[in-house]
Design goal:
The structure holds two protein chains of two kinds. By secondary structure, chain A is mainly alpha-helical. Chain A contains 24 helices and two strands. Chain A has helices at 24-48, 54-60, 63-94, 100-106, 115-126, 131-140, 156-181, 184-192, 197-226, 229-234, 239-249, 253-277, 300-338, 341-372, 376-385, 393-419, 431-454, 459-467, 472-483, 485-501, 504-509, 517-526, 530-556, 568-571, and strands at 95-96, 296-297. The longest helix of chain A is centred in the middle third of the chain and has 39 residues, at 300-338. The two termini of chain A are 46 Å apart. The relative contact order of chain A is 0.13. Chain B is of the alpha+beta class. Helices cover 21% and strands 34% of the residues of chain B. Chain B contains eight helices and 21 strands. A six-stranded mixed beta sheet of chain B has the order 7-8-9-3-10-11, with helices on both faces. In chain B, strands 2-1-4-5-6 form a five-stranded antiparallel beta sheet. In chain B, strands 16-20-17-18-19 form a five-stranded antiparallel beta sheet, with no helix packed on it. Classes of the chains: A mainly alpha, B alpha+beta. Chain A binds chain B through residues 2-4, 6, 9, 11-17, 19-20, 458, 460-461, 463-472, 478-479, 482-483, and chain B through 8-10, 27-31, 34, 51, 54-56, 63, 65, 68-71, 76-85, 87-89, 91-93, 95-99, 108-109, 111, 150, 153-154, 157, 159, 163, 210, 222.
């Protein structure tokens, strides 16, 4: 009989395996989470610690203005990107009109243009001495600004327009993905129940797409809060501009940190609004039957209107500013090259590559760590490490500077006491600080992309490799890595490009006189020398086109039933907002 | 070759996320010379037990010994990772590595194999007829071929214990029989302790030397296929092998009286309710010849045919008491070998084979 007899047991324990105690994956994940959380915790700590009456001073003077301006900006941008994003997504998904297939990806192009770049271009084009006003004066015989009224671009309204033009693709991308995922059957049911295309859109398609649209809005508004270049250039006093002002012009770090905390409450409000809008809703496919979307055929004038509706965002958000910049760059490239353009480009490239490499390594480590041990507290640690993406760069920069300075001073004291040698500032104001700041902000991007990629590898493949004698590390190297190479490359590209574009953190964290393409363009354009720095702006935009290609390929494959089903919103940082379950 | 490694569970219990236990106090030794099947419906905990043995789940209570090595002991917080347990595992979805060729898949678990070992693997590859496909990728293979590659990959490192998780359930019925036979033939030569999870009683009967029946996380019966089928330990085991006729009655001095006769119940207490299971294949049906009533009366119980379903190899005959309206009685199901299609409403006589009758205490 093979029933078990407990007494022969003691002899069976010839070799004792080692106890499971130290787990490098778990420990590493917690270390990373702690390190990434450091800047945010520092900001909170400083803002909450008792300080001078700076806070009261801020509250009575500038704070109401900051709040009003920031809210105005968010409402304006939110409304603008909702209308453009949802409208173009619906047209390109559900309607047939000339150019539809090109618009499907071309509408993503403005994503490549940072808001500050487009702001410089439009200021250049629309200011008093610019070509538009000059043409108007010539046409109508006006001689001075007193003769006519022309809207001032450097205003809140201008900032809203600029950000709307480059941020609507977030909503477009997610709304389109949601429309594609909807079963056409649902819409047909609505039609057979006697509702026309318009009512079907408002009563069926739009509510079904609501969770995705809200995520797109939230992401875009986070970018709005993050923006520094545009509001600085337009002298629109939002919180981000205010933090910079309090820090550099008033030289008050605690006050800046306190402003940063108020800014954080805006982010929290955004996340709460997003949760509320999605209450009770889950992503689910409304039907398992998918067919080619029928498409309402738009003819004649209506087709022309649809064409124009899709063309204008692409032209205004990408083609026109990019064309202007290329034109300037061609005229002035010799001067740019003599102005150290190559050095700045080299700085941008090395910083961004370094950061992309680190973000991918750490993201892969964390994503695999969750896979090895998907317990709640490990997931929570990875979510914590992903929080940086929601936090405006200026806030993170303050935390980074203060935290690194504290570490530097501690190290210096330690070294002085022990060896009598001053180490000086090891991290503050060095490349390390910049890379660390970028990592805090963009780790979520690589982690999310890699985590989504890992879902392609079934759990049984891990099991197969492990039972075939491979350690977790060897399994990662031989099974997961080759299978998710594309996701890793995507993650690297996304982080790389965001680092190239990054402005507020770079300004606050860079070593003295250290210029990247972004700071160089910002510096020159602020001084009215856009033409001279156009080559830099063109380079940033050109790099930004890379992720647009990646995203448009992803969305093309996103339809359920197509060869590779992936949820595009899973590949964007939207998963930050997912509840950790 | 292996000289036999046993796999031993001792008081193993497991739960997911503070939920109810899915494995409850399982103690059993899988012997190296026996092909053992864990049989039970989905959700009964059999796959969890397999994954605990493999080390893919962390043991919560009890101990697991492979060969002479204690690989997991919940109390002593010992948990040997799967890669150091010397086991092989075949997964339900095969989990072949899509980026590796067939040969690379099969040799995945081999680190610096001896030339003799390589020759052995090549022979096996030849035996399952996949030598020509060794440089192809898994997606070009048929389901049956993928299953064989998965099996070969699991046994290539010569593990002491082989674990199989529903390895045939993704194959279509006609292919399944063939692949089962191939698998048995390969494993027979290896003298390897094999534990296979299945929900298909016929598969377990066909393949196993020993069957462990699991119910709600417990092993309720362990024995040979014959013991499991002919002497089910409880009503649950008896009902595993397909539909049964259920009758109720009271125990009266070691016997239970039913409309179909008296059945012995020596192990049950006097005056307690009893459950009587009669397998459909234990009911012989004979059509009454038209003639004087009572001629065949001693030979069986008279009944009438309510409905017949011809299934091919056998026929299902639904029977009811004579005279009673059909809606009033729970029909009796008889399975008759071959083609047997009596008229609806025709009178028949049945005989019940005592070997197919099981009496259990009703709860």
């Amino acid at each position: 009989m093979s029933e078990h007899h407990p007494q022969d047991e003691e002899t069976a324990l010839a070799s004792k395996p080692r106890r499971s105690s130290f787990n490098p994956w778990q420990t590493g994940t917690f270390l990373i989470a702690a390190l990434i959380a450091l800047p945010l915790v520092t900001v909170l700590g400083i803002a909450l610690s008792p300080s001078d009456d700076m806070w009261r001073h801020l509250a009575t003077t500038v704070l109401p203005h900051y709040i009003a301006t920031t809210l105005g900006l968010m409402i304006g941008v939110g409304a603008g990107i909702f209308i453009i994003g949802v409208g173009t997504a619906w047209l390109t998904t559900m309607c047939r009109f000339p150019g539809r297939r090109i618009f499907q990806w071309a509408l993503l192009l403005p994503l490549a243009v940072p808001a500050y770049v487009i702001a410089y271009v439009y200021t250049d084009v629309l200011e008093y001495a610019g070509p538009v006003q000059g043409l108007l004066r010539d046409l109508f015989g006006w001689t001075s600004a007193q003769d006519y009224r022309f809207p001032e671009i450097r205003s809140l309204g201008g900032a809203i327009s600029m950000m709307t033009l480059v941020l609507y693709p977030y909503v477009y991308l997610l709304a389109r993905a949601a429309f594609l995922e909807q079963s056409v059957c649902c819409l047909e049911v609505s039609r057979t129940l006697g509702r026309g295309p318009w009512r079907s859109f408002f009563t069926v398609a739009l509510p079904l797409a609501r969770p995705a649209i809200v995520i797109g809005l939230t992401l875009a508004l986070m970018e709005t809060l993050n923006d520094f270049g545009t509001v600085d250039f337009f002298a629109v006093s939002t919180f981000t501009a205010g933090i910079y002002d309090v820090w550099f012009n008033m030289n008050n770090r605690a006050g800046a940190a306190q402003l940063a905390v108020v800014l954080l409450t805006f982010v929290l409000m955004l996340i709460a609004a997003e949760r509320w809008a999605r209450r009770g809703q889950r992503y689910h496919h409304t039907s398992t039957k998918y067919r080619e979307l029928p498409g309402y055929r738009l003819r004649g004038g209506r087709g022309g209107l649809a064409f124009l509706a899709c063309l204008s965002p692409v032209v205004l958000g990408f083609a026109l500013p990019f064309g202007v910049l290329v034109n300037y760059a061609l005229d002035h490239y010799e001067q740019a090259l003599s102005d150290n353009f190559l050095l700045y480009a080299w700085h941008s490239l090395t910083l961004s590559s370094l950061c992309a490499g680190a973000a991918v390594l750490i993201g892969l480590f964390m994503a695999y760590s969750v896979r090895l041990d998907p317990r709640r507290f490990i997931k929570a640690a990875t979510r914590f490490a992903s929080i940086g993406y929601a936090v405006p760069g200026a806030v993170l920069a303050i935390g980074t500077v203060i935290a690194l300075a504290a570490i530097d001073h501690a190290l210096d004291d330690f070294s002085m006491n022990l060896f009598g040698i001053s180490t000086g500032l090891l991290f503050s104001g060095t490349i390390v600080a910049v890379v660390f700041g970028y990592l805090v902000r963009f780790l979520a991007l690589s982690f999310g992309t890699i985590e989504a990629g890992l879902t392609k590898v079934t759990a049984n493949m891990d099991g197969a490799a492990r039972t075939l004698g491979k350690s977790p590390g060897a399994t990662l190297r031989r099974v997961h890595f080759p299978l998710i190479k594309t996701s890793i490359l995507t993650a690297a590209i996304l982080v790389f490009v965001d680092c190239m574009k990054e402005l507020p953190m770079t300004i606050l964290l860079r070593p003295f006189n250290y210029e990247t393409l972004a700071t160089y363009v910002h510096q020159f354009a602020s001084d009215g020398l856009l033409e001279e720095s156009a080559l830099g702006a063109v380079s940033i935009v050109a790099a930004g086109i890379l992720p647009v290609i990646v995203l448009s390929r992803t969305i093309a494959q996103s339809r359920p039933g197509s060869e590779q089903t992936r949820e595009p919103h899973k590949r964007t940082p939207a998963l930050l907002l997912e509840t950790p379950t | 070759m292996n000289t036999g490694t046993r796999l031993l569970f001792e008081h193993v219990s497991h739960a997911y996320d503070n939920g109810p236990d899915v494995v409850r106090d399982v103690s059993y030794t899988v012997e190296p010379d026996a092909f053992t099947c864990l049989l039970g419906p989905s959700g009964c905990g059999k796959t969890t037990l397999l994954r605990l043995a493999a080390g893919l789940e962390t043991l919560q209570r009890g101990r697991i010994v492979i060969g002479d090595r204690l690989v997991a002991d919940a109390q002593a917080r010992i948990q040997t990772p799967p890669e150091r347990r010397g086991i092989g595992m075949v997964f339900q979805d095969y989990a072949l590595f899509p980026h590796l060729t067939i040969l690379e898949n099969i040799t995945f678990g081999l680190d610096r194999p001896t030339p003799e070992h390589v020759r052995w693997v090549r022979d096996l590859l030849d035996r399952i007829g996949l030598t020509e496909l060794k440089d192809s990728y898994p997606h070009v293979l048929s389901g049956g071929q993928q299953q064989r590659v998965a099996l070969l990959r699991a046994i290539a490192p010569r593990p002491g214990v082989l674990l199989l998780d529903e390895p045939f359930s993704d194959l279509d019925v006609t292919l399944r029989a063939q692949v089962r036979e191939d698998t048995l033939r390969i494993l027979r030569d290896l003298n390897i302790a094999s534990l296979m999870v299945t929900h298909d009683p016929e598969e377990a009967m066909y393949m196993a030397d020993r069957i462990l029946v699991m119910e709600n996380g417990r092993i309720v019966q362990s024995g040979t296929p014959e013991q499991t089928y002919c002497r089910p330990a409880n009503a649950y085991v008896a009902a595993l092998f397909g539909p049964v006729n259920r009758l109720r009655g009271m125990v009266d001095h070691g016997q239970v009286e039913t409309p179909l006769g008296r059945f012995p119940a020596p192990h049950l207490e006097n005056g307690t309710p009893a459950l009587i299971f009669i397998r459909p294949e234990g009911i012989a049906v004979r059509v009454c010849r038209t003639g004087p009533e009572g001629h065949d009366a001693q030979n069986g119980i008279p009944m009438q045919v309510l409905q017949v379903n011809l299934l091919g190899r056998s026929s299902h005959v639904h029977l009811g008491a004579i005279g009673a309206p059909p809606s009033d009685t729970v029909p009796l199901l008889a399975r008759v070998h071959g083609v047997f299609v009596p008229e609806k409403g025709s009178k028949v006589q049945i005989r019940i084979d005592a070997a197919h009758v099981f009496v259990f205490a009703a709860e």
